[in-house]
What we know:
This protein is mainly α. It has helices spanning 16-27, 35-42, 48-63, 70-81, 84-93, 103-110, 142-163, 168-173.
Amino acid sequence: SSGINAEWPLRPGHTEKIHLPFLKWALGVHRKSSNIGVWGESGRYPLIYQTIRLSINYYTRLTKGDSSSFVSAALQEQKHLNLPWYKNIESLLKLDEIYFVDHVTAHHMINKKSCNTHSHKLPENLKGLKCDTPLPSKRYRINKISDTLCTHFKTCWEYEKSISSKLSFYHSVKKKFARE
Length: 180
């Protein structure tokens, strides 16, 4: 899958089959209690978010390593085969807006310097290229990606809490996603 699926964050996956029952036990609530309420009361995100962060850290380490190593060759082969884990990593990296901007703008955004445009012109020595738009930086910030995913989760959590007839009282007293 690519991008963020609107239904995905609140539908428990395999990792949550252990995590959610543990959170329910820790909170002292019935095992059939609402997952929305459990996540809201515990202030915990599904474990997949930590898994994503670790996977991106691992990918970053692989891409910054020695390009002549066996590990680098294996990564290049996996990219070439377009394996699902790589496609998913690529779609996650694109959650950071600097992934698509040119290198100069990306540098300014990372260093929080003001920049008048998000599309710098190519230097004179590169004018021979067939396209006149700058190459994307393909840079990313792991914290920005993680924050984007967490914000999306909170938005979905808030929406599900507000429309659930079983959680109307909970919705009236629980205003923000945080541990109580």
